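Its record is retained below.
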Amino acid sequence: MKETVKGSNKLKSNELGLWHGIFQSFSHVAPAAEVAILITGTALVAEGSTPLIFILAPLIVLLWLNTNYQFSGYVASSGGYSAFARAGLGKSAGDITGWLFFFNEFLTYTGFALLSFAAFVYLLSPSITSIPYLWVPILLIPLVFSTAMVYRGVKLSLNYAAYTGFIETAVLTIAALIIIFKLGSSNTFYVFTAVPVHNDFSIIGLGLLFGLYSYGGTGSVVALGEEMKEPKKVIGKAIIYGWLLVLIPLALNAYALTVGWGLSNISSFGTSPDPGVIEYFSFLGPFGGWIFVAVVINSFLDFGIAINNSLTRMLYYLARDSNLLPRFLTKTHPKYGTPYKAIIAVAIVSFIIAVVSGIIFGPFVGALVIEGAASIAFMLQHSLATLSLPFYSRREKHLKVTVHVVIPAISLVFIAFAILSTVYPIPAFPLNLPAYMVIAWTIAGVLLIALLRQAGRDRERNKDIAS
């Protein structure tokens, strides 16, 4: 089911190998940037149980990744989750899945690659926050860098992500182990339970909203199916290896920084400016602290590359195969083979969204709000793709009960629990907004798909009348 198109609307095939796929997955999570920013959002909710979240989340995501892994052996497409849902449930289900993926990736790029980067730089030097709107030119740094890299070619961009990703993994892993060693008798298993939040599992569920979001990007390599060498063999491996490469540094840092902060004062962890930076400087000194800062900044840049790769391929696919977006987005560069008009469109629209969100809420809170909406949309898109797996497998006559029915069913239960935890009990403003944003976007998508379907029927009817 590998689509092909002619002329200037064709992506470059056979560009990427296994390591490119692994670091597409790895960079879409951006562990160092997660440690600096998104772990703070998790800690705002889960406090002392934050390490529990960072153990539960990757295990749940591994169940989710079964969908990507199973489909990757049969469906190679730039449509990713949308192509999976379409393969099992039909075009309409595929279109709404793509519509949600488009929303999720756009907001994730805007919220994390741009606004969270600006928030991180702001928090490094709080004195500069007195300069009005300085965060606007700051967020241009990852925007311009990632746009230029992705425009010049998917292989070039992922070569850079792979080289710097190795360094990021080494720094985070070694640093976390040093901090854990220095903690000595303060090390504890208490943080791997729900006791710190008084066994309130609604809090654990809300914490999972950000924890699942942290690990969820490991499946993003599926959007590069048309540009991979032997995608039906390579993508599955890239998903698993990418997941492992992300799990180790993130889980170690979640534990080290939570315990290192001090459980008696943990309520201040989520509200402190750059707690990760504070602890790295505290435990590793200025040398270790500034290395961490450099790795975090580059992690944001790598994330911008990875999500730009997957997002622009989704725009390309929705314009080419679903007609939900304008056809000009299918144009590919004659030299680089990249969907350059989609790349330019992403840069312009994401900049507008980032500025508007930052003006309304400020860069840090604005990032949390739109990342929360992106997380819900991600879980919904994954639900549709997962639901389609048993239908596709049964129709293609390769159904295996465990991996095609049982694991997808368990995955859907966890997704339902995580989504329910975002809306009940209702979070305080503005974290109550993400659910409403996703509902509005979903309704708009359903209406658009219905209108396009009706327009198609009208055209067919007019043809019949004319003939």
